[in-house]
Amino acid sequence: LPLLEVKNLNVSINNNEILKDFNLTINPGEIHAIMGPNGSGKSTFSKVLAGHPAYSVLNGDIFFKGSSILELEPEQRSHLGIFLAFQYPIEIPGVSNEDFLRLAYNSKQKFYNKPEVDPIEFLSIMNEKLQLVNMSPIFLSRNVNEGFSGGEKKRNEILQMILLDSELAILDETDSGLDIDALKTISAGINNFMTSSKSILLITHYQRLLDYIKPTYVHVMQNGQIIKTGSANLAIELEKKGYEWLN
Ligand code: ADP
Ligand code: MG
Ligand code: MG
Fold it and tell me: Which of 3-7, 186-190, 226-230 has the lowest mean pLDDT?
């Protein structure tokens, strides 16, 4: 059974049709990279998967673990195992990272009728996860993303993804603006997260991320559609020749 199946999806925002007969199937254990020029609809696709309310699905369907998720709220999709890391992580003044992460964790526990964890139990869970992304426990006491550097925000996202143990992680330009050390740390965190039952959808402009996270497939998006699919080598070819070469 595919983890994600997107069939003939047409999506609009403000009466602009952005995705046009978009199709994509992701099986457990696969890493898919989506590349493509600015404005091709990559972020739109990721937000539609997460259930962003601004987008209208005009036609088609999205199946996750075999069931349509179109009618589900973003929170329900998240509980089912879809994780979206935003291109621009938000700051939440006055809320500590620790409280934020514990709320997210307990909300998922509740959804599956599992016991909520108390702050002390939670800290012991977190200590193990923090090491996977090379983050200091000090981050837990700081407000969500407030004053975090670009690299710290991205590591914080990977931390959330690992904590929630989602099956489908969607990372939209998680590599943008990172220096090489942060890129390596984040890639290691992502590779640690990956198992044969999970999948990752990586949206990126740059081939360099794919030096660290080896994609099963690389797709090129243009004008709201996937116009080409290939192996990891396609990303290397794109780096050399640019997107124009495909037209
Ligand atoms: P990408 O992530 O590939 O750069 P996006 O999904 O962000 O592309 O954008 C795809 C297209 O959707 C662009 O042409 C953009 O202008 C348009 N778009 C995005 N948000 C809106 C909006 N709120 N209203 C109208 N058009 C939008
Ligand atoms: Mg863009
Ligand atoms: Mg984008």
Answer: 186-190
Q: How far is CA 12 from the centre of its chain?
A: 21
Task: Give me ligand 1 centre to Cα 44, in Å.
Answer: 6
Residue with the larger pLDDT of the pair 237 and 87: 237
Pocket lined around ligand 1, Cβ cut-off 6 Å? 13-14, 16, 18, 36, 38-44
CA of 88 to the centre of ligand 1 (A): 15
DSSP state string for 66-92: TEE-TTS-HHHHHHHTEEEE-SSPPPE
Task: Give which of 103, 109, 49 is closest to 77, Cα–Cα.
Answer: 49
49 CA from centroid of ligand 1 (Å): 15
* pLDDT tens digits for range 151-171: 888 888 889 999 999 999 999
Number of Cβ atoms within 10 Å of the Cβ of 201: 27
- Residue ranges and CATH numbers for the domains of the chain are 4-246 (3.40.50.300)
pLDDT at 243: 87
